[in-house]
Amino acid sequence: MTTREFLKAICEATGVSGYEQGVRAIVSTEFSSLCDETHVDPMGNLWGVKRGSLGQRRIMLAAHMDEIGLIVKKLDKHVIRFTQVGGFDVRVLPGQPVTVHGTVDLPGVIGSRAPHVLPASERDKVVPMDDLFIDVGLSEDEIGSYVHTGDLITIRRGFVDLKNNLAASKAMDDRAGVASLYECLRLLQTLKHEWDVYAVATVQEEVGLRGAMTSAYGVAPDAAIAIDVTFARTPELPEVGTFELDKGPAIARGPNMHPALTARLEETARLNEIPYQSEPLPGRTGTDAWAIQVAREGVPTGLIGLPLRYMHTPCETLSIRDVERAGRLMAWFITGLSESFVGELVPSLPEAD
What's the CATH superfamily of 3-67+170-344? Predict the structure, then answer.
């Protein structure tokens, strides 16, 4: 399976935060063929472990496999009222096709009052989520047999190949990061490395970085790299804080990232002619890196960002080449890890006279 094929498969799978079993099954199958062992921890994170020749040091790679979604709040006659799991862009929800995961999966559509019957003062405003509803075609008498409060709802969108090796889909955030882990593991099949590699597809990132917290505690890595999406440049956004598609992944700099690890990532990219961009992040990154860094006594952590257009919508768009480049960057970085690198990561006091 190519990295693009893997990305398509996991993007089209279901895996709302806290209910990642559908996507996890696909990741588990593919990681198992590339790793010495795989297992699922009590939180639901999937660990793929590829042993190195040294057998004493651990590098953790983390990308979250959960997606934002919706959840049934109540039944209102023949329609479903809902709220969100994670942070949807509410502006794009009206008219979206969905799947309601009730006693059976039901196709539905998100509707609202037609603009013709709205007061003039409301016609140009974003429709609040409380005023949206889902219609699955059932009557008031029938719907309660299939749908219950707390049932999950996902956007029903397929993977779309665009020109210039771009692709659009729901859940690119952060299934694209998981795909970069897959690319890295594929490349490591033909490369030698000393450190053990823990490729972790984490859960519940969208509702609080929970999977990263627990898996980092369990892995207890000597160093870690988180892979997530970052904002790609579009005409509506400023150049500062946004990054070009197909110009390489963004390597982050800031207090959430260990400077020696960041420098080694940049050096690896240059030596292997992998294009990359630099992303300054002076505060909270809002990624798995934020939780991993403070696990146990602290973990030297790096962050790689994949430029993404239209974040938290059903048409998140990125470059497949950037995903592959991120995987290649991590693989070559891992091959360069030795025992001596630990000394660069852990501060030491000067020797007394």
Answer: Zn peptidases (3.40.630.10)
Residue 12 catalytic? Answer: no
Domain assignments of the chain as residue spans, ordered by start? 3-67+170-344, 69-155
Inter-CA distances, 156 with 99, 153, 169, Å = 6, 9, 10
CA 152-155-159 angle, 5° bins: 135
What is the DSSP secondary structure assignment for residue 144, as one 8-state letter?
T
Sign of the torsion formed by the C-alpha atoms of 300, 306, 307 and 308: negative
Catalytic residue selected from 194, 205, 279, 324? 205
- Residue 328 phi/psi, 5-degree rounding, is -65, -40
pTM of the model: 0.95
Residue 120 has pLDDT above 70, yes or no: no
In order of 104, 139, 154, 186, the CA distances from 145 in angstroms are 10, 11, 20, 46
Give the number of other Cβ atoms within 10 Å of residue 60's Cβ. Answer: 27
